[in-house]
Amino acid sequence: MAAMGQGACNASFNEFQQQMWPVLMVEFFLAFAGNAFAIYHFVAHERTWHTGIVYSFNLAVSGLLYALSLPFLAAYYYPPKHWRYGPDLCKLERFLFSCNLYGGTFFLTCISLNRYLGIVHPLLVHGRQEPRHAAMVSGAGWLLVAGLSAPTLHFSVLQHKGNCTECLGSATDEQLPRYLPYSLFLAAFGCGLPFLLALFSYAAILRTVCRNPHITRLEKRKVGRLVSVGVALYVVSYLPYHALRNLNLGQRQRCPQAREPDCQGGLPLHSAYQLSKLLVSLNICLHPLLYATLADSMRGWCRAPRGQDRAPTPASGQPPCVTRSRAPHPRNPQIPASPAPSPPGEEARPPYARLG
User: Where are the membrane-spanning stretches (predicted)?
Assistant: First the structure.
């Protein structure tokens, strides 16, 4: 009876895995199209890049690189589950997955901190945030992400199972005592810390916006939408994946045969972990929503009056606001008089264009 139950559970789990490959292909098309279009838009249509665009461009590059590996992963899960591409591509696919994962958390955190400084401390950063600074931070971020992901090149190996070959995303049972501390470190440093920084940034942004009486309800809703997208990317994919991965590894360490999941314990947890992998891949499909919100914040908050061309965006990341004409001086027409007074409350409007 136990053998029959074990066979039924394994059959159920194999059926679940067989349904993953079409989902991965859909995610590939969405992620490739969305991130490729975002890169094209940044390169072709953004004449002057501010710091937010620099971080978003790197986030799009990270998503596009991983999207290119999804067809191999979909072919791997196509029944029967079998890796046909050799050990080098196995290591490369797992390395790209890790780089996208932690590149995503790093650049999302950079975007949230950039918005925090621009909205909560606008005077402090005015004229000091330049694209070259963001480019230097992005370069350091890529080196950090590559360093964090490098151990996957060692742990990811091929394992033969009957007539099929598995490409392990974690480690063999023998390497598990060394891999588990590494996985816990990635969860804390690569996911937990960025999430706390992003959460602090967005909470401070909401607090600042909601306390300003000169901001309309529509503008507050736009800020709330932007904050919701930023937090949802963590809650939907990054946090569940890291929690389930380490729970699954802990179960494997306590019970080595957990890699052959049973109905009583291993199957639900291992299936949830496999599902969380799909959610991580889904986040690169959601990044274009972040770019759309970013574009709205860049163009919608601060526009020039009708009939007047907008000047190029300064390197500091603050697009030009409404420019008011000055009447000539009553005695000397060459000397402009004082600027026309602003409408009540407009001078208190924060620089929302820095949301990017």
Answer: 20-43, 55-75, 95-113, 182-205, 226-244
